[in-house]
Here is the input.
Amino acid sequence: MTSEPTFDDSVAHRHIDADEHDDIYVVGDVHGCLAELQSLLARLDVGDDDLVVFVGDLVRKGPDSLGVLDLVRRRPNVTSVRGNNEEKLLRGDAVVQSFGPAEREYVASLPVAISFDDALVVHGGVDPRRPLDEHSVDDLQNMRSLAGGSYERPFWFEEHDGPWQVFFGHTVLERPVEREWAVGLDTGCVYGGELTAYDYRADELVVEPAERTVEERSDDSIVSPRSSSP
Ligand SMILES: [Mn+2]
Here is the structure.
């Protein structure tokens, strides 16, 4: 598939021409873990012609939301989709004390979906039972279980079979999800796991271990991916 994905009018979408970039990296939930993000970006050796796309949840829970946001918004070739934690800020359901109007304006400017080639980056995921243009902002930011309960299997990424290769965060994973049509990158850095990037051109994962555990998370809300279907 070469055409751009189409969305409901309420969903802000940005399409990026992959040909304008050399390396492309997609990075999992950062949640204010600035030190790990700096280490990861140094390892990736991101240049001006490369592209870095975050799956959202740059902020909240971790030690330095402001530092992470500053790093991302300063560079034109670094961008992010809006996660449910950014959405909470915009809706007034959460506050980051260090944020002023400029930070809030930047968060509001972030799209809910970013696409390039056949890749689609959203925070939560897509519902394979419905066409893409029938997804709300909430759907794309919070998608997880297809069974109703938050952590009840099957998860959407176990059923999704294209045509978009979806990169996502939101669901904290024991290890990254690497399936043909779904790549899950939230390996719980803020919970003492790792910060994970996917190198799109090389088709490989780059993993930065957490320096410390900032928040505790119960094991039943950390998902262990099943081995991929053939
Ligand atoms: Mn998150």
Remarks:
- Residues 34-44 form the longest helix (11 residues).
- Residues 4 and 58 are 25 Å apart (CA to CA).
- The pocket of manganese (II) ion is lined by residues 29, 31, 57, 83, 169-170, 186 (CB under 6 Å).
